[in-house]
Amino acid sequence: MENIKIISDLVSEMEIEADKLENKGIKAAAPRLRKILQTIGKACKAGRQEAQDIKTGANKEPAKEESENTADTTAE
Asked: What are the residue ranges spanned by the domains of the chain?
């Protein structure tokens, strides 16, 4: 799952921006921090969907193969 790597990288960036905002008093870091947090939320949502697709896809594949086999025998 590629989203895990993306989220990990974003968390590292978030820590840097949060440090700039809290400890160094750089107010310009706030919008960057909010943007990173929004992107993390989107990556989490995509990761949840990917996990769901893998889960449901694993259950549907055997049924799909059976229907393909049935279609091949009826065509002959």
From this structure: 2-75
